[in-house]
Amino acid sequence: MSKNELKFVRFEGDKQDHRNILLKMVVPYFEEIYTDCEDNSSGVPSYENTVKFSDGMIDMLHGHHDRYLEFCYKNHVPIGFFHIMVEHEDKQYLGYGFVMEFYVLPKYRRCGIGKTMFRRIETLFNIHGVTKLYLNSDTFAGIPFFESLGFEKTEGHRFEKIR
User: Fold this and answer.
1) Which of 4, 72, 92, 127 has the most CB atoms within 10 Å of its CB?
2) Total-model pTM
């Protein structure tokens, strides 16, 4: 791996270091989204609730080949993560790919890493034939980023992109 090359590693639930990395990133992620969102009436979740959220993401992966939780590394340092899934028959948005979570540590932003991470997401969705994507974003930083990738606001905090 060259100095500036990014590496993507799929989450492995049986690796405690993966669980620790995820939790270490979810803490600042929550701090950011709960202080930068339009409606912050509930405040930043407690550490206990952050752990529950992190564990919930992990639990959602079991038995699903079309859900991905991946870390992005630069120079062997984890700098971001994303959590995505393909919607199926029993869901309202059949055939869509759902970007459930997307985070890049602030000091690694504005240098193309987020766009590279998103290209990785598109590659994973291509495997499953997904051509329509959606996500929810209500952070001031997230909205312009996703709009720059071609997402359009459809309702509330929902954004969609058709490729």
Assistant:
1) 72
2) 0.87
